[in-house]
Design goal:
five-stranded antiparallel β-sheet
């Protein structure tokens, strides 16, 4: 089981209903949902630098699957047992970059 978070740039931050619609389109692979933003790629690199990606050589990574990223968003699946440790840190990293953090489990925009 995983705890999923997705990050993208949108100003002002959307309400939860609009964020859910954006999230669903992003996860369906629709392009052009939100404008590409350099902070998205920087966050992706921050995550790789901090935790690495999920590989056989990196068994300590908190992910349940590889990090999914493009120029519009970054999506991660965090092992349920590590969500309390990792999710707040990821949200802080995204906030410093001016990105939206969306929690699809609770359909919430984290602030």
């Amino acid at each position: 089981m995983s705890f999923d978070l997705t990050f993208w740039h949108e100003m002002p931050a959307p309400d939860p209903q609009a964020a859910l619609a954006t999230y669903e389109r992003l996860m369906d692979g629709v392009e052009g949902v939100v404008p590409p933003h350099p902070a998205v790629r920087r966050l992706h690199q921050d995550l790789l630098d901090r935790y690495g990606d999920l590989t056989e050589e990196n068994e300590d990574a908190p992910w349940t699957a590889g990090i999914w990223a493009n120029d519009e968003c970054v999506a991660v699946g965090i092992a349920w047992s590590r969500r309390a440790e990792v999710a707040p840190e990821l949200h802080a990293m995204a906030s410093r970059r001016g990105l939206v953090t969306f929690d699809p489990q609770d359909r919430a925009v984290l602030t």
